[in-house]
Each structure stands twice: as structure tokens, then as C-alpha cells.
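User:
Hi there, any thoughts?
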Amino acid sequence: MLNKIKNKKFEGEKIFLKKLTKNDCTKKYLRWLKDKKINQYLETRWKLYNKKKLEEFVSYCNKSDSDILFGIFKSKDEHIGNIKIGNLNLNHNSAYISYFIGEINEWGKGHATEAVKLALKLSFESLKLFKCYAGVYKKNKS
């Protein structure tokens, strides 16, 4: 069931979610993870990523039974961020959702809100979850 979901594209009004692949592990994506303004509230800020480690992370998520990683894309396959349904626990029907918009010029346009709505719909309707959690740092005003 998870592989079917991971391979599906989920469309919203302004963005869509789709599985990330090795081809999405670009210099742009790496730049997001290294940029202190972009990663200041992300747990990835504690890790040093290079292309190989990024590809390993994406591959791990694609093979995982407890993590679903999607890229957030605008029209024409413009990768602008990520959203992950992680720590999927089918015994308790729960998961954690984490997300970020890496393209600063796309901040404040509602893309993350739309991505979260799509991820929640997927979580509750397709995965039949009862609870989804997300955490936010107090200083993160957006």
C-alpha cells in the first residue's frame, strides 16, 4: 500500500506533491539544506549534507515502511520544498508531518499550507490514520 501511495502524484490548486528521486537531489536542494535562513527551524540543520548523503536520505525514505517523502512542486516540475509523513505507526494510526519551503521567493504564498492539507488528506483518507503531529519552534512566526 505504501509504495502505491509513494508513487502517486497529489495535486492541489497551486502545487503538487510527488515522490522525490535521485534526479531531484540537485545543487539547489543542497543549497536549501546549507542555508542558515532556510534551515534555521529544521532538524536537518544539525547535519552536513553532500550529494551522496542527500541521495542516500531520499533512497532511504523511498524504501522505508515508516516514512513517505514528497517534494513540493509548482507547475512545470519546479521543486520548491519537501513534506514528509514520518514515523508512521500503523499500530497507533499516527504519524509526524514535517515540511519546509526551500525557495525563499516562494515563502508566504500559502504553498506549505496547501502541502500540509494534501498530506493530511492523504494521511486520513488513504492511510486511515487517526492522528498526525507536527511541531513548530516558538520563534518561527510563519
